[in-house]
Amino acid sequence: MNRGYAGFYKGHYLRSSYEYAYAKYLDYHSIPWSHEDSTFDLGYKLYKPDFFIYDQYGNLIKIIEIKSRNKEAKIEAKRALDIIIERYNVECELISYEELLKLYESLPFSLTSTITEWIVSNNTTIHKAANGKLNGHFNLKHGKNTKKIIGEHTRKLWASDSPARRKMLEGLKKSGMKKGYIKVPREIRICTECVKEFKVLVTSPQKFCSQSCAGKVAIRNATARYMDKRKSIRNSLKDYIVKWSIDNKEIVLETPLNKIKPTMEPLVINIQKQFGVKDFRVISGAVFGEDRGRKELIRFMKECVMKSYAELTENEPLEPEDKKPLG
After folding, report:
1. What is the pLDDT of residues 180-220, one digit of tens each?
2. Do 245 and 309 meet the contact criterion of CB atoms below 8 Å apart?
3. What is the three-class DSSP state of 257?
4. In 3D, which of 230, 248, 261, 232 has the Cα closest to residue 302?
5. Which range in 85-89, 129-133, 278-282, 298-302 is most confidently predicted, on average pLDDT?
6. What burial class does residue 278 get, using C-beta atoms within 10 Å of its C-beta: 0-12 exposed, 13-18 middle, 19+ buried?
């Protein structure tokens, strides 16, 4: 999946150029998303899907997993997504190169140019090992002598009382065994979701009785995190609209209700650059908590200007009595 080309985009650590391409597709259509919000217990392993898609109210509506054209990887991902659908009742979709090509048919830029953009970007050099340029160990294998040295070093660690040995022992304890293959005792715990009792190893961090309970909490936590982030963006967006209105008070006050677009256009462009939002419904929702349209928004902006002007004139110092003109 081009894992060598990893890097950051809008604060999210994306692991491939395909993930970047899908993130750009979502942003172009102003679709709210987040990346690797939660981990799901599938019974045989823990699984962290790539993209979490939300509606305009912050509710999780879909999970997207991005994979390359590798058939085995796609089969394994499909199996994991099917379990999430069945156990947690969340819609899931697997997207690969072929699906990305179809999605990009409606965009004004190509998938190839987007992937190239990600690969050559200075922000994607993390773990990049292309042609061994950034990784001195790229495509090298351990020789017999190196393996012998590693084995001797491991035996010395087991014979000592080093932190590394204690860490290895802790790993064995978590798996249910410890040195000498002595079983670790179990204990009764209370599920923090459904309050049912369940038995588990005393060394286990498990808090839930089943994958279903764990999944419910994971989805709830993911939604809560997204809502907090969205609330913060909305508050900043509203403050920006108020400031922009005051800074452009002449334009705002002179805007008739039947010719709003020329005034709104530069505002929307600035909002898209600073917040990545271009859907007017989201902009209106940041101010009113719901979409009320352009007329209501321009009225709000005019009120902000008038209120600011009133506060300014109210705080202006009065002329001294001796400088006032005589009656």
Report:
1. 545 668 899 999 889 899 988 887 888 888 878 888 888 88
2. no
3. coil
4. 248
5. 298-302
6. middle
Residue 8 is encoded by which pair of tokens? Answer: 């950051």
74-100 per-position pLDDT tens digit: 999 999 999 999 888 889 999 999 999
Q: Could you give the CA distance from residue 228 to residue 60 in angstroms, rounded to a whole number?
A: 14
> Cα–Cα distance between 47 and 41 in angstroms, integer?
6
Which among 276, 275, 269, 267 has a CA at the least distance from the CA of 243? 267
- Write down all domains in the chain, each with its CATH number in brackets: 7-132 (3.40.1350), 141-180 (no CATH), 233-314 (no CATH)
Which residues, 6 or more positions from 202, have their beta carbon under 8 angstroms from its beta carbon? Answer: 184, 185, 186, 187
d(CA 221, CA 208): 15
Q: What residues contact residue 226 under an 8 Å CB cut-off, 6+ apart? A: 32, 34, 37, 52, 54, 58, 60
- From 289, 327, 301, 163, select the one nearest 244 (Cα to Cα): 301
107: Cα separation from own chain's centroid:
22
Instruction: Kindly list the distances between the CA atom of residue 49 and the CA atoms of 63, 64, 68, 114, in Å, as whole numbers in the listed order.
Output: 7, 7, 14, 22
Query: Which pTM was predicted?
Result: 0.46
